[in-house]
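Suppose a colleague, Dr. K., hands you the sequence of a protein chain of 66 amino acids and asks what its three-dimensional shape might be. Before reaching for any lab equipment, you can write down a predicted structure in token form. Begin with the sequence itself:
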Amino acid sequence: MKLHVDKKADALYLRLDDSKIIESDEVAPGVILDYNEKNEVVGIEMLHLSRRSHDLDTTALQFEAV
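The predicted structure, expressed as tokens, is then:
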């Protein structure tokens, strides 16, 4: 799993695995899901991060496993 934050593009991309992306679908404004050939979600992109959370600090991301 890989997380990429692009401050210049104001976007976040979470890649769940390395399978080939076959299709993408914008499921909500600025939220795009990428699907592989098995129709599984393998990527999640969120655009306009600064509009979604004004207090977001992308330099201090935390990982939590439950």
